[in-house]
Every structure is written in structure tokens, then in C-alpha cells.
UniProtKB/TrEMBL annotation:
One of its GO terms (biological process) is response to sucrose. Signal peptide: none annotated. It comes from the Eukaryota. PANTHER family: ADIPONECTIN RECEPTOR PROTEIN, ADIPOR/PROGESTIN RECEPTOR-RELATED. The keyword Membrane applies. This is Uncharacterized protein. It comes from Haematococcus lacustris. Belongs to the ADIPOR family. Its main location: membrane.
Length: 113
């Protein structure tokens, strides 16, 4: 049972890292001409991901009463991607490859749910 709990925690850590890492290319390249925004969005997503990792690893948060909080944190981590995507659309919706990238990012987000 101890091994099962450890593997379960590492699984959630891997999911958090996957979500965080999937934000980096679109934000880095999408906001290449606005490095301040890129730094802000990448910092926020990294901090939220670190919180999800901490909650996944700390035994205090493994009890049933924290289940909804843990799920909400992971959902919030994924939904945080809506903000930079909408920002990118507001800046560059007239550029066809931005619209195409947003469509692909939306598909990626749906697969995470």
C-alpha cells in the first residue's frame, strides 16, 4: 500500500509538470515581442504548478476532505491557460496562424479534461 500511495503521488506530480510544461512553448513564442507578459504568465503558471506539486506530495493534503481542493487546484492550473490565450487573441486575432494556434491549444486543453 505504501508503494501504491507513492506512485499515486508521483503520477499527480507528473500530471502537474505536464500541464506546466505544455504552457511554455505557446506563451514563450506567442509573447516573444512582449517579454514582460511572457515572464508574468510563465511565472504564474510555474507557481501554480509548484502549488499543485506540493499538494500532491504532502501527506497532509491526501485526506478525503482535501479531495475537492486538490481537484480544484488542478482544474485551475489547466484553466489558467485561458487568460494568455484570450490576451493573445486580443492582440493578434487578425493573424491567421495565431487563430490556428489558438484552435490547437483549445484541442490540447480539451484532452486534459
Amino acid at each position: 500500500q505504501h508503494i501504491s500511495l507513492m506512485v499515486w503521488r508521483f503520477d499527480y506530480v507528473g500530471i502537474a509538470l505536464l500541464i506546466v510544461a505544455s504552457f511554455y512553448p505557446p506563451i514563450y513564442y506567442g509573447f516573444m515581442c512582449q517579454p514582460g507578459w511572457a515572464a508574468l504568465y510563465l511565472s504564474v503558471i510555474t507557481a501554480l504548478g509548484a502549488c499543485c506539486v506540493a499538494v500532491s506530495l504532502l501527506s497532509r493534503f491526501q485526506t478525503p476532505q482535501w479531495r475537492a481542493t486538490r481537484a480544484g487546484m488542478f482544474a485551475g492550473l489547466g484553466l489558467m491557460g485561458v487568460i494568455p490565450v484570450l490576451h493573445q487573441l486580443a492582440l493578434n486575432s487578425h493573424v491567421w496562424h495565431v487563430r490556428a494556434a489558438v484552435a490547437l491549444i483549445a484541442i490540447m486543453g480539451c484532452t486534459y479534461l
